[in-house]
User: Fold these one by one.
Assistant:
Number 1:
Amino acid sequence: MKISDVLRHKGSEVITIKPGETVSTLLALLAEHRIGAVVVSADGTTVDGIVSERDVVLHLHSTGTSVLDGPVSRIMTSDVTTGSADDDVADLAGTMTEERVRHVPIVDADGRLTAIVSIGDIVKHRLSELQSERDQLRDYISH
């Protein structure tokens, strides 16, 4: 199975934030969309970084509440693991596990942002696959 299969069910909407926006604005986006990470993009099509709720917590702990008024660029991860729609689901899941990342932006061949997948999206897709296989086996056995 390919990441494109996951995206067919999940959709390809990506919430982005500009690097100069404040961390407080980021928190509002995370809460509004009930998500755990946002792609940082100056133009909405390139991946400049990624910032998660974990990044906010780590910087709140080390810096204090002043981080809330600072720019997202100060706390984002710049070295972002990305994937493509053609990637194998199991391979990307392995990469996410090895690199300890929970969100991977999906880019096209030109590097343009097209979607984002979370480890939760991948687990949900795999569970759906397993249930479908179980149902097919049950139907096969009962006939």
Number 2:
Amino acid sequence: MKRILIATLLLAACKEEVAVAPDPVSFTDETLAHFCAMNVAEHGGPKGQIHLEGIPEPLFFAQVRDAVAYLKSPERDAAIVATYVTDMGKAASWDEPGPTNWTAADTAVFVVEAEVAGGMGAPEIVPFADPAAAEAFISRYGGRAVPLAEIPDEAALAPIDLDAKLETPS
């Protein structure tokens, strides 16, 4: 009996709680970007949202570049429990990425080093749920496809060249 009790206690102690990732949240006309406090809906291009442990509302980002910069930053208010980005393969257009068009960042393909401007005018990191859609984007705008973990630091953290000739995709 004593052995069963000890085994039960050990199993209970070893049980890991599995956190369930929250669903993505649609942005609205009132949703503000985390870094700049500007309205997310007023800027074209892909968006990001990051959910933090213990905080009910996600942090929104007007550019995926900004969301990736936050992910790469060691300074955070809480642990990250989920990250979503706009699936640009399903977006109506660059100017209308869609408030509900989200895909999990950890399964998305990201186009880096394309000469395209995000919603805030900086070079953008462009996410796609479908690798074929990412390749079609690359054939038109250049760049290369990488998973989230392989996005180079300089794609999100490098200084911005305000004189760069960046294209706004159609």
Number 3:
Amino acid sequence: MEKIPMTPAGFAALEAELKQLKSVERPAIIEAIASARELGDLKENAEYHSAREKQGFIEGRIKELEGVLSLAEVIDPTKLSGAIKFGAKVTLVDEDTDEEKTWQIVGEHEANIEKGLLNIKSPIARALIGKEEGDSVEVRTPGGVRSYEVLSIHYA
């Protein structure tokens, strides 16, 4: 199986979600199913069917998280330096609009573009890997080709 790169923060967040699902959500849904069973006929019991559906979702998410965490390769960005690689916090300027953006390159399970966490498999991250400060990068995006200049690279 292929290892899944992940930052320590991403690993901790997934572990916390798994713990929440196992210790809080799972017992709560078991209780909800038991309460719904007491209401009688299960064929027409909306609470029971809703609770069972939620239980299926929770159990599926638990299995998914356990699988991801078992394959995780935690990479500490504070021990890295040099050209852009996994874990780098990169500040870019769009060469057309002069808009600055800062992203950290992270694993796909912790990516969140609104929080500035860029999936390592995204077109922008793939184009940035190996680049140095001052380099220009052309990225093919669904919206067309964009040109960026690398302003800074930090590993924190």
